[in-house]
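fwd from M.: "can u put these together and see what the complex looks like"

so here's what she sent:
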Amino acid sequence: MGITTAFSTEEPLGGSVVLTKLEAAINWSRKYSFFLYPFATACCAMEFMAVGGPRYDLDRFGAALPRFSPRQADLLMVVGTITHKQAPILVKVYNQMTEPKWVMAFGVCAVSGGFYDNYATVQGIDTLIPVDVYIPGCPPRPEMVLDGLMKLQEKVTKEKWSDWPRGPAPVKMKC
Amino acid sequence: MSTNVTLDKLSRQFPRSVVETHTHRGDATAIVRKDEILAICRFLRDDPELAYDFMMDLTAVDYLGKEPRFEVVYHLYSLSKNQRVRIKARVPEADCTIDSIVSIWVAADWFEREVFDLYGIIFNGHPNLKRLLLYEGFEGHPLRKDYPLKKRQPLIGPLN
């Protein structure tokens, strides 16, 4: 993690020059500056607040600033149960975000529907939009969220420019 | 036998429609035929001795396997008399309709829409009987006991 993975450890010209690939340098900066969009629908939002608060402090990972417009965000955190009625709104929010963008399914309801296996609940948001990180738990402990965020950072490190753009969500919905 | 004023008056006024009455710890219940529900509700509201001016709740129950299958349940409250009564109207599956009481208590509007949405009971004379909680394109009525537990709706997702 950190600067050594993105930048060469060689120190040409007495350490006054750093060599790297542009792709690696950009990925390195992206992974420490997530702008979250909290799509908070249910009780998991309380745990999201705990993660954002000073004790667990998402800011240590550069993911501190929630943007309440999807157009200004690049990390969609789906925090809570998604009902069928809400599904078109989630898809619309996802499509409004500019690329590159990542999606985190926060809690079992977003991951798989959780125990809401019924007529009203979407059985996992990956039936609607691509998901990068799944964080199970009902709700997940803040430590799990931090772990999930670090997993996403690792993933971002390995990304290629050819991975983007992903394009709009694969489902078409009227909203 | 009940000693409840409301139930006594109701049984005397509608001897044909009131099928059964009972009280339990002050909870008065009358089971009625659905045909005269509008007249019964109007009587309960307008009789000065009863004055049930507040319709607190309207819901339904599905007794799958029994006949008649459905019961529409009205909970009424009289603010001036501090009295409550529960009216249950039996609705058979073959004729799954009942008269709307929106003309008596406007509050019944959304309650009847909700019951229609989840049970599929038609309220005759309702001003705007469409789904309240679920969305357009939803197939079936999910609070019916024979709604398949694992049924997936066509609207949502490629994998659902």
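replying to her w this: Chain B touches chain A at residues 134-135, 138, 142, 147, 149-153, 155-160 (CB under 8 Å).
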